[in-house]
Amino acid sequence: MVLSFTDPDKWYEEYESASPKRRYEIIMETIEQPLSRKFIDELDLGMCLVELRDELVSNNLVEEAIDFFDKLRAKQPDLYREDFHYFDNFLVEYYLFKDEPEKVAESLSRFMEDPVQGIDQMKVLLDELRFYGYTDLAVELCRKTYAPVKSSPKLIEGAEWDLADIVFVDLVDKAYQQIRVGKAANWKKLISQTAEYDFADSEEMADEIRVYLTEEIEGGSQFVTQFKRDREERLNALSWEFSKYMFEQKDVGFICSDGIWGEVLEFLEGRKPSRRKSVAPNIYFGFSDAELDWYLGEMISGFMSMQQAKGVALLWGIPYIYDLLLSKEIITDSVYQEVIKSVASLKHPLIQAFQNSLWQYDFVHRWRPPDSVPREDFAAESKEFAESIKVKTPLSNQPTKRGMDFFGG
Questions:
Q1: Domain count, the chain
Q2: 10 CB burial (10 A radius; 0-12, 13-18, 19+)
């Protein structure tokens, strides 16, 4: 049957009855044509394009996906731009995995130009940028998109807060880099720059951060007493101590560490024991397999979930925090061992569930191994994640009902 590029009903009849492989060919033929706006709208061609994107990505058909995106961008630039966030989000993830900064930046450019349209995908990519350690690009993205996100009537109030937080943490990171080489940090400049992002313009904040960056936390019984008296303050101090620890011991920047800490803290704060005002660190930081399993399930399960990267960062990030807590004698060895055991037991089912998409979360192997994981085990796991991209499923030649084989990626 000859495709019609003027009659949407005839085009759709051919497309509907085709196999996944033939649908790919139909789309590639169609975007070569000079299509009318009426044809595009009546057909809802944009939805067909996104479905093809999902089909290719979910089957790890990377070369075909990139070829499709390149042709769509070249032949139908307006159509590409209408749904750029569905195409560019995959490109950013892929080039992060491949560690190709220039291509990551190019794929982020349309988010920087129009962050409101793709805000949900942009927030996911921002998480991945921070976990991969792409600090400069993460900060650039936040700085360029903060004002339009904040002022947009299409977004809920506070949508810009995550962007401001990354800029703030980066400024503190730069202050720490000055301090650690014996130079004086410019606190007045830090205060004035954070004020641009609606942080309190106060010397008190700067004094507090200066103490956290220059003084090492004393653990043991003294910390336990302080923790019971003012948990919020001690957790704040611990967050900066963790960032310093990760930088010095694991070569991980503050923005990444802050992301790991934030995910773990959100999990801990959501548990009933943590709601008590006075609780010992052993109780606060202790948790069961079931608690973590349920929380992770809520984060990463479901067709519409967009928190998979955060869930992986949480599970793989926990050991780093607990290595620090144990070294400071803030928790006992028994609590530490139980937590490490829980994490290990939950990694396996998650790896099995993400068998052909593990490469999308390979950022956990850009960090040096936690103290609790043998280097050979870390290397083997890293290899498994990286090679998952080779698990490809060719498009079927068998006709299937449209919609049955599109699962999103």
A1: 1
A2: middle
How far is Cα 342 from Cα 320, in angstroms, rounded to an integer?
A: 14
**Do 38 and 369 form a contact (C-beta atoms < 8 A)?**
no
66 in a domain, yes or no?
yes
Structure-block tokens of residue 243: 């960032």
Decide if 53 is inside a domain: yes
- Identify the domain containing residue 27 by its residue range: 8-82
* Alpha-carbon separation of residue 302 from 213, 291, 359 (angstroms): 40, 18, 20
What pLDDT score was predicted for residue 274? Answer: 54
Please spell the DSSP secondary structure of 192-240, one letter per residue: HHHHTTT----HHHHHHHHHHHHSPPP-HHHHHHHHHH-HHHHHHHHHH
Tell me the CB-side half-sphere exposure of residue 117, using CA atoms within 13 A. 14
Residue 19 in any domain: the answer is yes
d(CA 121, CA 93): 11
pLDDT (tens digit, 9 = 90+) per residue, 109-126? 999 999 999 999 999 999
On whether residue 394 sits in a domain, the answer given is no
Q: What is d(CA 63, CA 57) in angstroms, rounded to the nearest whole number?
A: 10
Which residues make Cβ contacts (< 8 Å) with residue 403, sequence separation at least 6? 51
